[in-house]
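From the pipeline queue, job 12 of 40. The input is one protein chain; the requested action is below.

Action: predict structure.
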Amino acid sequence: MRLAIALLACAALPVAPAAAAGQSAKAHPTRDWAKTVAGTPEGGFRLGNPAARVKLVEYGSLACPHCRHFEETGYDPLVRGYVRSGRVSYEFRNFLLNAPDISASLLAHCNTQPDWRHLEYWPFPC
């Protein structure tokens, strides 16, 4: 009988703040840093949280088969596992090797907006 009275008394209590905080955390997911792109003063393009503790800078060629292999195998796990959460910022800087690479790099840079707010460097299909 005492157990039934205790359960009824607990059921009448208001919702605890911890439960309400858990509900608001589900309603507001964490920020997806993989959608944050900005130009850097060094001429690169940074993807992710600018205040991340780990800053990864890649010097890559748009015409290099080894750089393409990294993009095909390592880019998605890097973004999904580290950049999206805000733990790592990933900056790409062009490393020019030859004439086709210069042309591809210029084309990619010309595809960006001058104010960097609507940067379209990453989704550019190369």
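Job complete. The longest strand covers residues 54-60.
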